[in-house]
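ugh ok fine here u go
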Amino acid sequence: MAEQNRDLIILGFRQSFYTKVTREPRTADGMPGKILKTEENVPDYWVKYVNRGMPQSAATEERLRHMDPENLVLPEGADGGSKQAFLEHRWAQIKPAFDAWLSGQQMPEYGIPLGAWPALSPEQVKAFHSAGVRSIEDVRDMTEALITKVRLPNIRDLKKLAGMYIEGLGAAQTAEREAARDAEIEALREKLDAAMELLEKQAEHNAETEGGKRPAKAA
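structure:
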């Protein structure tokens, strides 16, 4: 995934457990199929994230199995192209961070985990973690004192690259917000035009009625 297309900030993951019920396909009349198997205490993973540019108070928590595009189930005959693309876009950002969390890498308190940044190798991520740097924002904001603690070559180049990465995300998010705003304005304009047309027809009808042009009653 291109870096400028990353628009989520992953805040953390957690695990719970649920009862998994496997059924036969639904019947012809839409009723649930026969239960084939029931499994207790199946691990269930959750992700907490927020759209870039939004406050953390607007964070969303969802089950990962509901976000994995491989689990997408559509009604027969439905075109799920746009839904599939949406899920794949989010999953490409969430899965690297989830894999890092599963492997024991600590999530940052705020920001994008280093494990989700394609510019870094696992060894570089480990070196940053050793110095207490856990997010791309942390790399961008490193002080000179902190730079000397990170045992990596070209560390200042990585600091600049982190800043360019974050700036690119912000520009992409701004463009998406402007496109969404334009689409909303256009939709409102169409609704207003339709309402005005309806009012004009109603006014014409009222004028004809007041002018005595009422439809003749049936005998």
